[in-house]
Design brief:
This protein is 59% helix and 0% strand. It is built from 33 helices and no strands.
Length: 461
């Protein structure tokens, strides 16, 4: 059966997936088709800011936060005893009732007591959200569980029971242990600190951290690093006289020295020098004529254009042109433009959509950035946090009332209990999501949701 045939007759696919006589090989082909049509690029090939903002499928959690669009096929596949083991484990979290009811499950557990070790951890955590998992199966999984999985099992309703009267204090004590980001998350941490997306207790915990990269991130929310300061502002002019006739044939060191001259004629001559380090000094020089700066904007060596972006005399028109260079090699240039004294709110709004978090961090630190641009930065940061592999950022997205409501809905499928806990208490979450969380398998999540639902019903009465 080809993918084209599969796509033409979905009912036939469901029938084949349901049929206990369908061969494992055929069922595997159906599973491969399901993986193909779940790819966001299959239906909407796009990329960049729009992809993240509107589709929101970038990031490690993208594979689990969105339910599979072909639920009927998935259900039939998971219920079929002939479905290969790997496929069953892959889709078990999407339709746990069908998986638990599949008669082959008991046989698989007898043959492979560590069956669930073969399930991806994110999908296993997703599976453990369901309250219908019996205690004996939880105990089987617990025998070889990772710390995250062991925690999910320990507080599963069929292991722990209902949360007691002090549930909130216990939950908050556990929540306070959420891991802080590593150095790889420093730029994202800066972004969220500047945008003020995190609760006060979490920000306080960051201030109490002794990790150097976290302290650096805190510092950068209020100051600018030394390498970001416009050295051109304190430029020391070289007033030494240079011979215009011979400067072109002078040695490299002398030409570099001359490129720091205040003589516009010398600077015009050196703007076409063969050596990029000479041209970079001309681009950086506050005495370089405007028409020469415009010419250097077309330079094919990126460090020259980087130096140009640091020239405080660069006009807004030229900055706007340079800001449209989205290549990764131009990252430092765009970052400098975002901090340039002549940058305009319109240019900043354009750079607010930049793919580089470093550029966006420079934009959000600029006082000229408009409210609309800041809102766009906030929207993007929270959407990216939703799909982040790091627990703290994922939690921030679920806890923040400014996260896009369509993305908050996806939090119902979060593999992490603390994210679902935050979701239950988030006042911006639709009430039907809170209601769904009242039957969550994690004892603290369900109690938080039950409490939030009671409060909402009172407020509506």
């Amino acid at each position: 059966m080809t993918n084209q045939q599969l796509s033409l007759d979905e009912q036939a696919i469901i029938q084949a997936a349901s049929d206990p006589t369908t061969t494992p090989e055929e069922l595997l082909r159906i599973a491969n088709y399901l993986e193909l049509v779940s790819d966001p690029d299959f239906e909407r090939p796009t990329s960049g800011t729009d992809f993240l903002r509107f589709v929101g499928r970038q990031g490690p959690l993208a594979v689990v936060l969105d339910p599979h669009p072909r639920t009927a096929i998935v259900t039939a596949l998971v219920a079929n005893p002939n479905t290969p083991q790997k496929t069953l484990l892959h889709f078990a979290a999407d339709v746990p009732e069908a998986f638990l009811a599949n008669p082959v499950l008991l046989l698989l557990l007898l043959e492979h007591p560590d069956l669930f070790r073969q399930m991806d951890e994110l999908r296993l955590l997703l599976f453990l959200r369901h309250a219908s998992i019996p205690a004996n199966l939880l105990n089987t999984i617990r025998g070889y569980a990772s710390p995250n999985v062991a925690h999910a099992i320990a507080y599963h309703i069929n292991s722990y029971g209902e949360a007691g009267a002090d549930w909130q204090a216990q939950a908050e004590a556990l929540l306070a242990q959420i891991p802080l980001p590593s150095i790889d998350g420093q730029e994202a941490l800066i972004e969220h600190l500047i945008l003020r997306t995190m609760p006060a207790w979490l920000e306080q915990r960051l201030h109490e951290s002794t990790e150097e990269h976290i302290q650096q991130a805190l510092q950068q929310t209020v100051t600018v690093l030394e390498d970001e300061v416009f050295a051109a502002m304190s430029y020391t002019i070289n007033n030494q006289p240079f011979d215009q006739a011979s400067i072109g044939t002078a040695d490299r060191e002398l030409r570099k020295l001359a490129a720091e001259s205040s003589d516009p004629v010398i600077l015009r001559l050196l703007a076409d020098d063969d050596d990029p380090s000479v041209r970079a000094r001309v681009a950086f020089n506050v005495n370089t004529p405007l028409d020469v700066l415009s010419r250097l904007e077309l330079d094919d060596v990126q460090p020259v254009r980087n130096a140009l972006a640091l020239n405080p005399n660069l006009p807004a028109e030229l900055l706007a042109t340079m800001a449209r260079d989205y290549s990764w090699s131009a990252l430092r240039m765009r970052k400098a433009i975002a901090q340039h004294p002549n940058v305009t709110p319109d240019i900043l709004a354009h750079l607010a959509t930049d793919e580089s978090i470093q550029v966006r961090n420079a934009v959000v630190r600029n006082q000229q950035t408009t409210i609309e641009a800041r809102q766009q930065l906030l929207d993007r940061a929270l959407t990216a946090a939703l799909y982040s592999a790091h627990p703290m950022f994922h939690f921030i997205a679920m806890a923040n009332q400014y996260t896009d409501p369509q993305h908050l809905r996806k939090g119902l499928r979060s593999p992490y209990w603390y994210a679902r806990y935050a979701l239950a208490l988030n006042p911006a979450v639709p009430i039907e999501i809170v209601r769904a969380l009242t039957v969550d398998a994690h004892c603290f999540v369900r109690r938080a949701a039950q409490t939030a639902l009671e409060q909402r019903v009172k407020e509506q009465a």
